Amino acid sequence: MMSSRSSTYSFFTEVDSFLLRTSTIKRCTSTTSVKVPTTVLFGKKNKRKQQNSRGQPAQEKQSVQDQRFDAATRQFMFTLVGLTKILPDKSKKILDNINLSFYPGAKIGIVGLNGSGKSTLLKIMAGVDSEYDGLARPLPGAKIGYLPQEPSLDEFETVQEAIDQAVQSSRDILDQYNELSLKLADPDLSDSQMQETMDKIESLTNKIDAGNLWELDRVVERAMDSLRVPPGDASIKTLSGGEKRRTALCQLLLGSPDMILADEPTNDLDAESVAWLEQFLDQYAGTVVCITHDRYFLNNVAGWILELDRGKGIPHEGNYESFLEAKTKRLEEEQKQQSAADKAVANELEWIRSNPKAKGNKSKARLSRYDELLVAAAPKELRNAGQIYIPPGPRLGNEVIEVKNLRKSFGDRLLIDDLSFSLPPAGIVGVVGPNGAGKSTLINMLIGKEQPDSGTIKIGETVKLVSVGQKQMEDLDPSKTVFEEISEGLDEIELGTQSVASRAYLSWFGFKGQSQQAKVENLSGGERSRVQLAKLLKAGGNLLCLDEPSNNIDEKVLRSLEEGLLNFAGSALVVSHDRYMLDRICSHILACEGDSKWFFFPGNYAEYEANKVQRLGEQSIKRITYAPLVNV
Q1: Can you tell me the distance from the alpha carbon of 79 to that of 99, in angstroms, rounded to the nearest whole number?
Q2: How far apart are CA 93 and CA 87, in angstroms?
Q3: Are residues 566 and 465 in the same domain?
Q4: What is the CATH classification number for the domain harbouring 450?
Q5: What's the pTM value of the predicted model, to 2 decimals?
Q6: Residue 48's domain spans which residues?
Q7: Residue 350: what pLDDT?
Q8: Which of 106, 161, 304, 445 could in theory staple to 157 by disulfide, Cβ–Cβ 3.0 to 4.6 A?
Q9: Tens digits of per-residue pLDDT, 406-452?
């Protein structure tokens, strides 16, 4: 495979690659032409020489080149040639001369900073965005399925009607089969009509066998259960954003496209649903291109990683772990001296290479080094290096949170039944469970926004609590700039006993240069999440309550946040479906295991999962279940 960033890469195989020559392809939005590569030569060793075309008319030469290009690209599920995208205000070239080809069956994960063009690339491939230079072409006749971050569903339909759209062609085949089977019982059929009917039935039977359509109803039910899709009779217009995403994802998968384009498919999925999705995609024969910040998902599904960096597409063959290794080497080559960001990559690579026992021991070690974390405070090299630093609040006493016999219902559902646990100083507790289990409700009770039906919650006298919730992004002032919203107009921000330049603090969360002057109203979801984190983490609390902090945050900021939490001189409760993050930072897991029962476990997520299998067996919760609500 060529090492040049500007070369075209063929995913999933090293046999063939594009070699750059010249031709002309019209811009999609005007008659302006750009020079892009079109001549395709196959094979790395036995490259065919270009035919001498001197003396040929220009139109004839162009026709020959186009024919060669068409023939060559028919082996690819999708082809991008010279793809360039400039933002509407012409302030930034977000994609710069990208040349990629995707083989059938390839599984590609796209990573990169917020604003690097990941969603834009998928929109172009899905045909949603046509304002670009170059070529973006699927295999003729290929069925492309696309899941945007905010899917659009018909609000006048029920969930079942939306799901049935995806399998309508399959149901039509089954209906035709049943109709013809009944026709065979007609005594008035002539021999020729009988033979014609039997031939049609045979053809339909072959289609049904090939698509395993005999099991269609079971497959649909299993997919809806596994993805926690709302009940079939629920109206689309009553669904939350997460429920709509799960419905749209189920619709996409059941539609059996030749190529899946998915923008953050694991958002709003619990751990069991993500595990099912991984298994589904592993067995899926088509091509998958997905944007995700779920690093375990990338490790388990992706055969290639495509990093978008400063407009360029940098492909890597392998999963996320091998991508980290390659990126570490690349960073070392680009700059001889490691920065804090490079060290964060190296720290993550060291962690991911360690065995499961070592990973768990590292998380638990926090509990015995609270004093060390407190004394370390903020080393100068960390404060000045662009890594997220979470300032410590007052020194924690021995009592942080003590919960006894907690009980909470919502409507006619009993969410939490007889929950007791104690959070130690420096403990980081991952709160996990299926969607609808009551995780956010639990956090709201701990921070005093909701009251339990019975039981007690005791917060230690030394605790200063800081909370970052999913809905707090609505509290941001859309008219302010990023700098104004985070710094409140001050040149310096106080972080505990330290102070740091406001603009430097903003850079820790990925806001540098002109991006600090961007209006909040123009920010993406990931950028808004970073603004909210930056605002709340400067408050100097010693107990953090974070509700889905990893949603929509790019891997660089997420890695920095993990490092910040690992070095934080305090305790934290983290609601998350990000198994990788839970494994890396947690000393304890608080999990909903069905029937309104919760389990408090000392260890990280992988250790908890192993323990759950020992206690409950392999069978996981298909749908969240609630114990009967009985007044006590």
Answers
A1: 8
A2: 6
A3: yes
A4: 3.40.50.300
A5: 0.70
A6: 9-143+294-321
A7: 67
A8: 161
A9: 999 887 788 899 999 999 888 999 999 887 788 888 988 988 889 99
